[in-house]
Specification:
This protein is α+β, with helices and mostly antiparallel strands. It has 16 helices and 7 strands. The N and C termini lie far apart (about 55 Å). The chain binds iron/sulfur cluster. Belongs to the Nth/MutY family.
């Protein structure tokens, strides 16, 4: 690994720093994200918020706006909270060891190990999807990597491999090896330096390893958005906790079990909100969009509703809806689904 890495590694900005803040930022952004997609986000964040203090004092809406498009928004909220925790509880300095890093919100074993080794040269092995794959293939580990209990077996093995000298280099190397040499679908076995030792290659089991059971099928949800409009205003609200897209803005939502919402049900939904339509003629929904998340699919329809009068204060308080003009909407953090809809219509 240590021979292979210097000759093959990609030149990435977070590999030129020992600053735990910058390393942590890159690791949070790169979770469940490809390097190519994450790189511009990393550059944007490190430029906008060069220190943990800068990130901690930023308004949450602004942080979510910068995160927009990366998905898994709980990562952004946790990241923001962690920055505040580092400033308030640790005087703006990241804790200096693996064990202490684990105390931070949203910092799991993987991220703590990455920061501890890359920033402090602590001898603690990282385990991400790439490392799981390399170890499973080279050593023939058949434990299901989707099962949390398997982690212990892989961690024990990885801990025996990581050298006391150059632990950071080794961790970087094995992750990079999994990312560009021992890839999931077409590993480059022909030109692999581990070919002779590789359990999977020697037995023709490369495609069988690692063992990973399938995730549960995603459930489908049907979102019917009531896009309430009055004059040049559109009513939007900030999504609450305990559901997808917490903290992002969307329209009044009527969720049902069916892909279609009959006109009469649209009228009823608007009236239940406490709003009055300008006419009782319901327009066809403008767009039907499908958005696939890791554990659920969202099928959305947007129903444009012109109001007879602005929403009453009581309705806005009860529903969280507030009027926005086009320029303000542009600045709000939104899901890709909502952003796509807005870019397709004229506000
Ligand atoms: S021989 Fe193939 S499967 Fe084995 S480590 Fe190398 S690339 Fe991965």
């Amino acid at each position: 690994m240590l021979n292979w890495y210097p000759r093959h590694r990609r030149d990435l900005p977070w590999r030129h720093t020992r600053d735990p803040y910058a390393i942590w930022l890159s690791e949070v952004i790169l979770q469940q994200t490809r390097v190519k997609q994450g790189l511009p986000y990393y550059l944007d964040f490190i430029t906008t918020y060069p220190t943990v203090q800068d990130l901690a004092v930023a308004p949450q809406d602004e942080v979510l706006r910068h995160w927009q498009g990366l998905g898994y928004y709980s990562r952004a909220r946790n990241m923001h909270h962690t920055a505040q925790q580092v400033v308030q509880e640790y005087g703006g300095h990241f804790p200096g060891s693996y064990a202490e890093l684990l105390q931070l919100r949203g910092v799991g074993q993987y991220t703590a190990a990455a920061i501890a080794s890359f920033a402090y040269d602590e001898q603690v092995a990282v385990l991400d999807g790439n490392v799981f794959r390399v170890l499973a293939r080279v050593f023939g580990l058949s434990q299901d990597i989707a099962v949390p209990a398997s982690r212990k077996v892989f961690q024990q093995l990885a801990d025996t491999l990581i050298p006391a000298e150059q632990p950071a280099e080794f961790n970087q190397a094995i992750m990079e090896f999994g990312a560009i040499q021992c890839t999931p679908q077409k590993p480059d076995c022909l030109f692999c330096p581990l070919q002779q030792q590789c359990f999977a290659f020697q037995r023709g089991l490369v495609q069988e390893l690692p063992v990973k059971s399938k995730a549960k099928a995603a459930r489908t949800r049907y979102f019917h958005y009531l896009v309430l409009r009055y004059a040049d205003m559109v009513y939007m609200r900030k999504r609450g906790p305990k559901d997808i897209w917490e903290g992002l803005y969307d329209f009044a939502l009527h969720e049902t079990d069916a892909a279609d919402l009959p006109a009469v049900a649209v009228v009823e939904a608007v009236e239940n909100l406490g709003a009055r339509m300008l006419t009782n003629r319901v327009e066809e929904p403008v767009a039907a969009l499908r958005h696939v998340l890791s554990h659920q699919k969202v099928e959305a329809k947007f129903h444009p509703i012109w109001l007879e009068a602005p929403l009453a204060a009581e309705v806005m308080e009860r529903t969280g809806l507030a009027p926005y003009r086009a320029a303000a909407i542009e600045e709000l953090p939104k899901s890709i689904l909502t952003t796509n809809y807005i870019s397709n219509i004229k506000l």
